[in-house]
Amino acid sequence: MAFINKIFLIYVFVCVIPVYAEKEISHEERPPGYTGKCKTIKSDGSVYESEFVKGIAHGKNFDWGASGRLVREGYYLHGKSHGAWTFYDTDGDIQFVRIKEKGKISREIHYDNGKIIADGQYKDGKRWNGIFRA
Q: pLDDT by residue (tens digit) across 67-88?
């Protein structure tokens, strides 16, 4: 029985754990079909990080400015931006939130000092209903 337990542990450490180990490479190094995180540091010091599944953007996406502050965050679903994408101002406050469904904007909410100043809905990617910021 002890022999079987040892074989099982070897299997877990050799075969299972590497599959779940988090990979992280730059976007430029990403091979076709890549699954894992990509993190690219640009020449100005800003950072772009995203997740891929089988070569397609799928998962969290972050952009940090050269100062290290978060500029934008959102999510990709099967290669298309999806859900709430939040954009931050230089003070780190929410500037606006863009809600997307399968890559198309469905709503956009703008803020000023934490208060909503514009809230508009989109239909077929075009402004449709609500108050929009010029």
A: 999 999 999 999 999 999 999 9
